[in-house]
Amino acid sequence: MSDSALLLVDLQNDFCNGGALAVLDSESVINTANEVITYCQQHDIAIIASQDWHPADHLSFAVNSATKVGTEGKLNGLRQIWWPVHCVQHQKGAEFHPALNQSAIQAIFQKGVNAIIDSYSAFFDNDHQHATQLDYWLTQNQIKHLYIMGLATDYCVKFTVLDALQLGYQVTVIQDGCRGVNLDPEDSHNALQEMALAGAKLITSSDLPIHFFDRANDFRQK
């Protein structure tokens, strides 16, 4: 196995068409994900995924905090957007999209399981008090570089990328494999710029053959 992994962020029913928190044009992300998965399988690159996995009483849900969806407030002292009920454990909305090539996924890392704090990043909760098993798995498998794509650009993708960079991983964001919530129209654009300024490389899926070749050469030279 190479020292790279593909991390698919939250490609779940509730973030896709007809879901509780559907992201515009999410279906194209599933198609791109399957194409990228094929590339990764051909180049011996690990394929892993994060999964939003909330208890029904999660306080980020507007209905559980007596507030309105899409408004902003504080949850445990942290800035919080109040969301519709979504990705509830063991419900259909929390399942991966049925068109996604799920059989290729080697490990799944669930987040958002603590009812009193939100977790955008696949690595930590929003206060960085509790970690998922993602960093441990990557370390155990000697992964140094992550390709990251998924939903949504301006929340879970962005915070996953920023945490990965802080942890010392090299990160490449596959831009056409991401779509945003865009509560403000520029949110996704601004998120991508923030990721790039933090050190992430931004590419499109059409760049992957060249990028894989360069990464493979770097790996062989180590």
TrEMBL record:
InterPro entries: Isochorismatase-like_dom, Isochorismatase-like_sf, Isochorismatase_Nicotinamidase. Keywords: Hydrolase, Metal-binding, Pyridine nucleotide biosynthesis. It is an enzyme of class 3 (hydrolase). GO terms for molecular function: metal ion binding; nicotinamidase activity. The keyword Kinase does not apply. GO terms for biological process: pyridine nucleotide biosynthetic process. Residues 4-206 form the Isochorismatase-like domain. The keyword Transferase does not apply. Pfam families: Isochorismatase (PF00857). It comes from the Bacteria. Its EC number is 3.5.1.19. Pathway: Cofactor biosynthesis; nicotinate biosynthesis; nicotinate from nicotinamide: step 1/1. PANTHER family: LD05707P, PYRAZINAMIDASE/NICOTINAMIDASE. Belongs to the isochorismatase family. This is Nicotinamidase.
